[in-house]
């Protein structure tokens, strides 16, 4: 059955999956959502016998219904190959009775690879299906990990260009170096004198600029997005939740139909929204634990029903979660209004204008599958150190936020259901922070030299192999030098595209 995509903010005509992927965001500024969430067709016990690519196909075919079997299988085969350093693609590690779903085995060692390794294939296929002709310009705001994963995915992909905006002082030294050393004829990287929300708002404003869009069209160019506002990023993320459940079943860790809990370190609300979609598809999931760092706007939202970004923006040791405007929450808001585009548009307008909104009691009731929690940097560090001391397993700073929230949840509620903790990055990406957690008093700074010294020290301490993605950064040449103020983002785009 065909699934089309409609905007969260108006009742304009729905579009096909391939068109939603190409556009990235609806012209009315809303996000594309599937008209309905499909149910898993393939029985779980059958999925348990499949490899990652097969499970990914069984999930994505339900959403990308205008792709042929051959097209979609080619996209999947191109994405999930030996770019990943493990056959399993998304392996599980059982540590103290908790299952860590390791999503950092791709080329840029963070979970963004799970979707951004396939998005370029989906997009070029979608371009062919829709007549081609135009060049796609991928505009991306990054809190650190999306940028590199998108650059790596789109570098030198014919028919595409990519521009990444990152907060100049808001990413780790390794993250910055990863982006600034990216090669490719079609890539540009710009540091913004602002935080991630500034970058994301700036990109959204450029998308919404009708005059610019028309000018682009005359030059044969069309914008799209590699952020998780693009449905082409969200859907591939559903696959690994289904795969994780199937893996637990295959390993005999759970019985068929047994409900599990899932803890997700959350920033832009994309990863956890994919888990919510998986649950709606029929995956046996009890609670979704939304774990925030000290920028705990989501924790407050789940506690009070009121979303308020009017607060200081805190730079933490989990920079990819330093976000006050979680853009994918809009899709959940749309669901809990009972698919009311006007109401959703009103909430989002209030967010853009006053920086806040409060949902109704009726809507709040529908948030029942979620549990909001947060962990401070100190609690995260204690989690990293405690688990390492007891079992020798090292987790990154983002994963630690979810692990701390999961532990706290179990203690507070006594809920003993099996717990999946989503592990979103390799500890090597944040080596100085990890080292500070493992060796309090160790005065590692965040300077680049220090970062690599910490990488080596972490390798000595943990015995974990240093990923190739980190090794190759040591000598790589910096090839991007652009910086701009928040108001200068559009000018950068014009300059890069020679408009
Ligand atoms: C992007 C990211 C997150 C947050 O994921 P969202 O989908 O934005 O909620 C968490 N951890 C890491 C390492 C990330 O890169």
What is the name of the CATH class of one domain? Alpha Beta
Biggest sheet architecture = 6 strands, mixed
The Cα radius of gyration reads: 21 Å
The set of bound ligands, ions and cofactors reads: pyridoxal-5'-phosphate
DSSP helical segment count:
22
Reported CATH architecture of one domain? 3-Layer(aba) Sandwich
Which features would summarize this protein structure in a list?
single chain, 499 residues, alpha/beta, 22 helices, binds pyridoxal-5'-phosphate
Describe this structure in words.
The protein contains 22 helices and 15 strands. Helices cover about 45% and strands about 15% of the residues. It has a six-stranded mixed β-sheet. The protein has a domain at about 90-110 and about 235-465: Rossmann fold, CATH 3.40.50. The chain has about 500 residues and is α/β, with parallel strands linked by helices. Pyridoxal-5'-phosphate binds near residues 112, 266, 270, 398 and 424.
Topology overview:
Layout: E1 5-7, H1 17-23, E2 32-34, H2 44-47, H3 52-63, H4 69-79, E3 92-95, E4 98-102, H5 112-116, H6 119-129, E5 135-141, H7 145-154, E6 160-167, H8 173-180, E7 187-193, H9 196-207, H10 210-218, E8 221-225, H11 231-250, E9 260-265, H12 270-280, E10 285-292, H13 297-304, E11 306-308, H14 329-336, H15 341-354, E12 356-358, H16 361-365, E13 370-374, H17 377-391, H18 397-413, E14 419-423, H19 431-438, H20 448-462, H21 468-471, E15 482-485, H22 489-497
Parallel strand pairs: 4-14, 5-6, 5-8, 6-7, 7-15, 9-10, 9-14, 10-13
Antiparallel strand pairs: 1-2, 3-4, 11-12
Helix pairs in contact: 1-6, 3-4, 3-11, 4-6, 11-12, 17-18, 17-19, 19-20
Residues 110-112, 145, 228, 265-271, 320-321, 398, 424-425 line the site of pyridoxal-5'-phosphate.
């Amino acid at each position: 059955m065909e699934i089309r995509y409609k905007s969260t903010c108006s009742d304009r005509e729905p579009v096909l999956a391939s068109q939603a992927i190409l556009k990235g965001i609806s012209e009315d500024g809303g996000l594309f959502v599937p008209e309905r969430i499909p149910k898993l067709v393939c029985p779980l016990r059958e999925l348990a016998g499949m490899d990652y690519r097969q499970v990914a196909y069984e999930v994505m075919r339900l959403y990308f219904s205008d792709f042929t079997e051959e097209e979609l299988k080619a996209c999947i085969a191109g994405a999930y190959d030996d770019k990943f350093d493990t056959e399993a693609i998304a392996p599980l590690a059982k540590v103290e009775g908790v299952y860590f779903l390791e999503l950092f085995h791709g080329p840029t060692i963070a979970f963004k690879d799970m979707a951004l390794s396939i998005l370029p294939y989906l997009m070029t296929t979608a371009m062919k299906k829709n007549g081609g002709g135009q060049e796609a310009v991928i505009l991306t705001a990054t809190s650190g990990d999306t940028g590199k994963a998108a650059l790596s995915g789109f570098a030198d992909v014919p028919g595409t260009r990519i521009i990444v905006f990152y907060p100049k002082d808001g990413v780790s030294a390794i993250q910055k170096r990863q982006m600034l050393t990216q090669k490719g004829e079609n890539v540009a990287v710009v540091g913004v004198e602002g935080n991630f929300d500034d970058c994301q708002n700036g990109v959204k404003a450029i998308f919404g600029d009708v005059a610019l869009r028309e000018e682009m069209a005359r030059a044969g160019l069309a914008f799209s997005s590699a952020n998780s506002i693009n449905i082409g990023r969200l859907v591939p993320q559903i696959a690994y939740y289904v795969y994780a459940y199937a893996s637990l079943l295959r390993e005999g860790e759970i019985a068929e139909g047994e409900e599990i809990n899932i803890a997700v370190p959350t920033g832009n609300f994309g990863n956890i929204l994919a888990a919510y979609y998986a649950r709606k598809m029929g995956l046996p999931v009890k609670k979704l634990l939304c774990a925030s760092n000290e920028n705990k706007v989501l924790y407050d939202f789940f506690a009070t029903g009121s979303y308020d970004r009017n607060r200081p923006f805190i730079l933490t040791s989990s920079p990819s979660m330093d976000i006050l405007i979680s853009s994918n929450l809009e899709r959940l808001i749309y669901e809990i209004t009972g698919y009311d585009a006007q109401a959703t548009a009103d909430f989002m307008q209030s967010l853009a204008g006053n920086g806040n909104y409060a949902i109704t009691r009726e809507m709040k009731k529908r948030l029942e599958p979620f549990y909001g929690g947060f962990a401070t940097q100190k609690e995260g560090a204690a989690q990293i150190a405690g688990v390492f001391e007891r079992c020798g397993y090292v987790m990154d700073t983002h994963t630690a936020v979810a692990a701390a929230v999961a532990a706290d949840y179990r203690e507070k509620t006594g809920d003993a259901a099996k717990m999946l903790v989503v592990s979103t990055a390799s500890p090597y990406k944040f080596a100085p922070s990890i080292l500070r957690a493992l060796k309090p008093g160790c005065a590692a700074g965040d300077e680049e030299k220090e970062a690599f010294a910490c990488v080596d020290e972490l390798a000595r301490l943990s015995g974990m192999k240093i990923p190739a993605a980190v090794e190759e950064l040591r000598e790589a040449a910096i090839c991007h030098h652009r910086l701009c103020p928040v108001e200068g983002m559009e000018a950068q785009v014009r300059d890069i595209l020679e408009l």
